[in-house]
Specification:
The chain is α/β, with parallel strands linked by helices and 125 residues long. The protein has one domain (2-123). The protein is built from five helices and four strands; from the N terminus they run ββαβαααβα. It has helices spanning 32-35, 48-54, 61-72, 77-84, 104-119, and strands at residues 2-7, 18-21, 39-40, 90-95. It has a four-stranded parallel beta sheet with strand order 1-4-2-3, covered by helices on one side. β2, α1 (32-35) and β3 form a beta-alpha-beta unit. It is globular, with a radius of gyration of 14 Å. The chain starts with a strand and ends in a 6-residue tail after the last helix.
Length: 125
């Protein structure tokens, strides 16, 4: 299992595997053709209220992560998305935030990896 994160503004690579946009809003200045997405998963993105509160402030990231994890708990999209990264498959979570160290894709990656570890799906089971 390999789950990576990548900005939508970076060039797609052949080894990206399934590319899933995990933003609630479509990224500015990117066409659907240039994004090379397999899926746009708005339902797994942070809620509008949480996104607005966070406003990509690194000082709020720890609390953002806690709140976002709470939103993801029980979200039916998590198992579906995790299945895309199970076994030997590769999943790339695509996001548009400028900050590569404080964004929802990093939190989501960790949640998906933990889900796969808990369910034993990491080995394709």
């Amino acid at each position: 299992m390999t789950i990576t994160v990548k900005r939508v503004y970076e060039e797609p690579a052949p080894d990206d595997g399934a590319r899933v946009l995990v933003d609630r809003l479509w990224p500015r200045g990117i066409s659907k053709e240039h994004a090379h997405l397999d899926r746009w998963c708005k339902e797994v993105a942070p809620s509008t209220g949480l996104r607005t509160w966070f406003h990509h402030d690194p000082h709020r990231f720890e609390e953002f992560e806690r709140r976002y994890r709470a939103e993801l708990a029980g979200n039916p999209e998590v198992p579906e998305l995790a299945a895309l990264g199970a076994g030997d498959r590769r999943l790339t979570l695509v996001y548009s935030a400028r900050d590569t160290e404080h964004n929802q894709a990093l939190v989501l990656r960790d949640v998906l990896e933990a889900y796969l570890d808990e369910t034993g799906s990491a080995s394709g089971a």
